[in-house]
Fold:
Amino acid sequence: MTFLPVTSLDADGQPLTLDRLRDCFEGMVPATLATVDPSGVPNVSFISQVHYVDSGRVAISYQFFNKTRRNILSTRTAEVELIDPMTVAFYQLELEFETTESKGPVFETMKARLAGIASHTGMEGVFRLMGADIFRVRSIRRVVAPRLARPLAPVAALPALRRVLDDMARATTLGELYDLTLDAIARHLGITNLMIMVPDDTRAALDAVATWGYSASGIGAEVPIGDGVIGVAARERVAIRIDHMSSAYTYGSAVRDRMRAEAGPGAPESRTVPFPGLPRPESQIALPMLWQGQLTGVLFAESPQPLRFLHEEEDTLGCIASALAAHAAALGDEEDAPTAAAPVDRNPHDRTLTLRHFAADDSVFVGGDYVIKGVAGAILWKLVRAHVTSGVCEFTNRELRLSPELRLPSHAENLEARLVLLERRLREKALPIQMEKAGRGRFRLDVRANLALQEE
Amino acid sequence: MPHQTDNVVHHGASAERPRVALSDEVISFIESGVSIVCAVVGPAGRAQTGRALAARVLPDATIRVIFANEGNEAIAAAAKAGGKIAMTFSAPMSHRTLQIKGYSSGLEELGPEDDALTGQQCDAFAGVLRGAGHPPGFVMAFLEYRLSKLWVVNFPAHEAFEQTPGPGAGRAL
Structure:
């Protein structure tokens, strides 16, 4: 349960609330934590992280079992002093200890932020989050008035958010929604390195289905659930942000090496698409797209600048991720077209394309060239087999949804996302097999080669 | 729970307690222009925090701390009442941190030496903050409260602890 702790007014006569103090929680200036032991002896320490939990609670990183920790557990009270890095106002918060969380969304959010702080301050390997100590805020006092005017943000978040949402509302297909959203974020918010990842529950991974601002599109690049800011945001269904890059959250060759190793001996050289991320990001943020309690994707942004995404950007991108999930659900909720006699293409072609399928992960290759895997790979394999067997080249979403071999998750929007991913991979590989929409809930496979299929 | 009367009793009892011998190296660290924060116990028995500007160590291991009245009303009240004080000194770049505790022997006005000391240590700390990447406007504003009413708190170093983050934190000096 949350509450709004309003205990005093600032000089402008405005109530002091945690929401108004959010810049203090960015970790730019270390906070001070005062505690007392049962015999009345005070203790004071610097703390690397005070985390905004909600409008009535904060969390403090528990990293070492020390005097501070013992005092908190025994007297269950503390006071923290925060300094606003923009205005240099000082605030003191009286705290009542509630509980310690050692897993879950708050813990993971703090763990990521702490990793960034540790990296920035040369304390990697020393700072390790053992728990998130959750405190109810009993009162807020401003003890030193602001000395600097709050700088104006380069982008006014609310009007920019409204323009992004207006642009998103123009989308008529899921693929268009993805592209319009990233384009709008780049234009209206000035965030220019972006991705939308969609989950494939059958292999506990997310695949890039739309990207913006990279030299290679990276469509089909994957991130295991739980890896880096994207994977943790997906697993915990919470926004994960890092302000200074930490090796603990870096994507790169380590992930690729591991995937290659997991593919096993004899596997083709590479069955992944390189992650298109920035070579040296300093700030990263990942926001879960949730609809009806289901994870339908992750919106990701990054920047070479440290501290690029603060609370305001997190709130703004969080609204966009929510809207993206809702629009995607609406666009994926197309009425299924009835199964109808499909056009048949039996014309021979001049060239032959050899497709190979690995059942272990449903990966599909053209010769030795990786195309796709997972649910999207299984869909491609089903389509080409149907085409080779009966010459059929038009399909409905409904028949895919009902197909037991595809092991589709129950939520329908995931199928649409898989089809967008497949269509984009085929286009990017410039293969003589392409997909195009053929009406609501229906698409066409445009095959311009004789297909030879090999089950590996 | 402790209250003001308890603190006064503690103060009286503390006069005979042995003081921690601080090494020259520790004294130099304390006086080098570091970040100084403090805690006291308020009348309701809750810890209260504050921030100091400068410190020096007298030959008898008394810590003499200069702080601004602004933002430190709780510290001033506890110090005046002879309450126990915890003072933590930290170098932001190296993270070296130590904490010293003792009972206050009251509030004093600044002497001429204190003024000069405050200026030197604040200037040194400003350099550290700039080196840590804080913008000049922030650094100037952060240390601006040294221009407000300043007080001195004296307390003997009855206990001293290593507090640098890591396995040695909490070890008595």
Notes: Chain B touches chain A through 46 residues (CB under 8 Å). The first helix of chain B runs from residue 4 to 14. Residues 1-14 of chain B have pLDDT under 50 and may be disordered.
